[in-house]
Every structure is written in structure tokens, then in C-alpha cells.
Specification:
By secondary structure, this protein is an all-alpha fold. It contains 2 helices and no strands. The protein has helices spanning about 10-45, 45-80. The longest helix has about 35 residues, at about 10-45.
Length: about 90
């Protein structure tokens, strides 16, 4: 059984949770654009490759923001417990 350390800084914990929720929204938007893009690339019918790649490029922006928010959320929640990083 793993013991969790108590949260010492409530504000950092709250900000970390808030960023995690925002990250989920951005990742959902990225998935909405990426799934049709992947399907269009896999169809492989002349014009569909270009449109699929365009959808994947559009999906890359919210994906990068979502991953950045997830990493920031994890660091914030880790720091709220005053644990060492290394």
C-alpha cells in the first residue's frame, strides 16, 4: 500500500487540478480533429491525404497546449506536497 503525502499548499493543489481540467478539454478538441484526419489519411484517395494532413496539423496545436498543461498540472500538484523533484 502506497502512502500519499498530505497537501501542504492548498492553492498550488487547486491550480494543478484546474490546469488538469483545462488540459482534458484541449486534448478532447485535439482528438476531435485528429481522428477524422487519421481516417482521411488512411482512406488514401487523392485529395483525402492532403485534407487529412491539414486536420492533423490543426489538431497538433491544441495537443501541444494540452500536454503542456498536463505536465504543468503534475508539477504543481507535486510541488504542493513539498516533495523533492530529484
Amino acid at each position: 500500500m502506497r502512502m500519499t503525502m498530505p497537501v501542504r499548499d492548498q492553492q498550488l493543489e487547486r491550480q494543478g487540478r484546474r490546469m488538469g481540467h483545462s488540459a482534458a478539454r484541449f486534448l478532447t478538441v485535439a482528438a476531435v480533429f485528429a481522428i477524422p484526419g487519421i481516417v482521411l489519411v488512411l482512406i488514401d484517395r487523392g485529395w483525402s491525404i492532403g485534407v487529412g494532413i491539414a486536420f492533423l496539423l490543426i489538431a497538433s496545436a491544441p495537443l501541444v497546449v494540452g500536454v503542456g498543461l498536463l505536465v504543468t498540472s503534475a508539477v504543481s500538484r507535486w510541488a504542493a506536497r513539498h516533495k523533492l523533484f530529484a
